[in-house]
Structures are given as structure tokens and as C-alpha cells.
Amino acid sequence: MSDKKPSGLEDVVVAQSSICFIDGKRGQLVYRGYDIDDLARNASFEEVAFLLWNGDLPNESQLNSLQHDLSAAMHFPRHLLELLRELPFDANPMRVLATSVAALGILDPDADSLAPESNHLKAIRLTAQLPLITTAWHRIRNGYELLEPNPQKSLAWNFLYLLNGSEPDEYAVETFDAALILHADHELNASTFSARVTAATLSDLHSAVCSAINTLKGPLHGGANEAVMKMLQDIGSLENVDHYMEGLRAGKQKVMGFGHRVYKAKDPRAVILEGMSEELGKRANDTKWFEMTRRVEELFQPTVADKGIYPNVDFYSASAYHVMGIPGDLFTAIFACSRVVGWTAHLFEQYANNRLFRPSSEYVGETGRKWKPVGQR
Ligand code: COA
Questions:
Q1: What is the tens place of the pLDDT at every residue in 43-76?
Q2: Contacts of 220 (CB under 8 A, 6+ apart)
Q3: For 32, left (φ over 0), alpha (ψ -120 to 50), or beta?
Q4: pTM
Q5: Across residues 78-98, what is the average pLDDT?
Q6: CB 305: neighbour CB atoms within 10 A?
Q7: Are 343 and 221 in contact (CB under 8 A)?
Q8: Mean pLDDT, to the nearest integer, of 151-179?
Q9: Degrees (nearest 5) of the Cα angle 179, 183, 185?
Q10: Cβ–Cβ < 8 Å for 16, 196
Q11: How far is the CA of 256 from the centre of ligand 1 (A)?
Q12: Which of 27, 118, 228, 242 could pair covalently with 113 via S-S, beta carbons 3.0-4.6 A apart?
């Protein structure tokens, strides 16, 4: 029998949840009973937010009411704007998001309330505010004027408009909206777990979302999409992919955007994003990034098939976002703009049925030592 100790909480069930189901072997992802493919093709991100928070898709009046609440929350407290203007322009956007959510917690009069109604309102506010912060940060660091969001339009439309300063075309909005849906939840991924661990101490929702943002930032989690883009930029051209991949294989390096703790088949989100990336490339007459990505997959996937390693959500989102004109260092922040819905849905569950997370470790350190004065060590 192997004496390898389980690590990374693999296969350990730490909560019951009715939000999200993953069948890693079949490559299936389900939100509240709806297949991700169905939702990405037909629903809006706002509908999916309602679904994740409340358990059912909204009827027309519920959807109108949510859209109204989101639009009403699309503004910045003045202090936050002043804070953003004081930050160094090369600050990592994920650090900016985490700092901003911490500041929003300071400024929110309801921050410390754990009441379900106030948590619900805070989740709506954060969902409206994260895209504003991300896009405002991009404009501030580039010296562009800030724009006013359009309350009649969706979060996806506003994100692209506030970022680029021009009205986005319909296909870009549709695709971006679908990308937000695809990233909105993913069971007990590292950042969601981190949010739930923070909430389980009965710390507040803003603090739990800060924990989640800081966890998402890492390249083994949400930061992988930015790393994929860096790899594509390093490769530079379709012709160079084969040579570059030989180098990676020789150094036995991981390819970002590949592999997943739960999926042992192609991530269903990668399948959808692959199609989107291809179509966006064709429409923009810039298929280079998609073609390079596909070539990396063709070359790399067979070499790791025996380990059950396939492209994950971050693999094709990089080329899709890039063709939409989004800078690579905002990719993970976009992930956060979407995942905030899943984090907060999980937080509602956590607060409703809370118990402190406090696992144990196996002690393998020294024993029986005696203190000596500093001069004798
Ligand atoms: N490229 C090459 N090999 C990989 C790999 C990748 N992207 N991901 C995992 N592997 C290999 C490991 O080297 C290891 O091989 P070994 O058993 O020969 O040592 C094996 O697969 C298991 O990997 P491990 O890192 O232990 O699996 P995990 O379940 O802890 O990791 C990830 C899951 C996501 C952290 C991992 O696949 C990874 O680092 N992927 C790249 C980052 C990424 O895309 N993250 C986004 C996830 S949505």
C-alpha cells in the first residue's frame, strides 16, 4: 500500500451544497440543476446570478427588479475613487480589487451585518461594483477619463463600454456575457473555499470576498488565464508553437490552462470558450491567437492524456479576451467580476448553516527540546 499522505484536501467533502455540481469524469458542470451549456447559450449573466443566489431562474418581474438593483449599485463611493487615484499605476489589478473590496467594507454602513437580507444586498452591490472598479482602474492607470455606466444596459455591455470607451458590438457583448456565466461558479474551488473559511469564523461578507479575491489571484487558480496569454505572447507566432512546446517538454514544465483537480476530461467551459475564441478571431480578422492556442492543445494534450490532463477554463478564455481588446493583466479580475456571484451564493449557504472550519494536521516536527539561553545555541 502506498504511504503517500493525502494532501490538498483532494476528494475530501467539507460541505453540503445545492449550488453547483461537477462530474469530472464526464466533463459536466451544472448550476442549480441546469447544464452550463444550456445557460451559456440561452441565459444572461444577470439571470444566472439570480439563479445562483436564489435557487431558481427569475420570472420577468424578479429579473427587472434585479437589473434595477444592479444598475442602482453601479457607482463608486467618492473615497474609493480617491484611493484608486492614489495607487501606483503599475499595481496588479487583483491587488487593486482586493484593496477596493476592503475599502468598500469600511465604507458600507451595513458591512458587519450578517443578516440574510443585508448579505443579499451587499452581494448585489459587489457584483455591480467589481466591473466598475476593474474598468475604472484600467482608465485611471492609462490617464483616461472615467465614464458613466449606462443603467439600461447589462453588466457585460457596461464592462466593455467602460473599459474601451466605445459602444461594444453585439457579438462581443453576447460572448462576454457567456464568459461571465461560465466563470460564475465552480463548486468548492480554492477561492470559494477560502471565502467560506473566512465566513465560517462569522467574519463579514466583504472580508470573505477579499479572501476569495486574494486566493483567485494565484497562477494555479484564476491567475492561469493571464499566464496563458503570457505564454502565447512569448510564443509570438503560429510557426513558433512547435519549437516552443519542445522547449517546455524538455524542461518538464507545466502548461498553464491545462489540468484540473476535478476534471479528468476536457472542461466543458473550455469547449464553449474554444468556439467563442474561434468565432471572435474570425470576426476580428485576427485568428492568430486562437490558432496558436489550438496548436498548443494539439501538441501538448496527447503527452499528458495518461494523467487525465485536458484544457481547463483558462486555456481558451485568454485568446478570446485578447481579441476583444482586453489587456492580459485584467483577465483574472474579469474572473473575479463573475465569480463574485458564486462566492456570495456560497456565503449565503455558509452563513445559513455555519460551523467553523478547523481541520487538523499531522505533527511531524521535533519533540522534547529544551530552551537554552541565546548564547548557548
Ligand atoms: N501541465 C503539465 N503537467 C501537469 C499540469 C499541467 N498544466 N497539471 C498537472 N500536471 C501533472 C503534474 O505535474 C503531476 O504529474 P506527476 O504526477 O507526474 O508529478 C500530475 O499532473 C498531477 O498534478 P497536480 O499538480 O498534483 O494536480 P492538482 O490536482 O494538484 O493540480 C492544477 C491541479 C490545476 C493546480 C494543475 O493541473 C495545474 O497546475 N494546472 C496549471 C494551472 C492552471 O491552469 N490552473 C487553472 C485551473 S482551472
A1: 999 999 999 999 999 999 999 999 999 999 999 8
A2: 190
A3: left
A4: 0.95
A5: 97
A6: 10
A7: no
A8: 96
A9: 145
A10: no
A11: 9
A12: 118
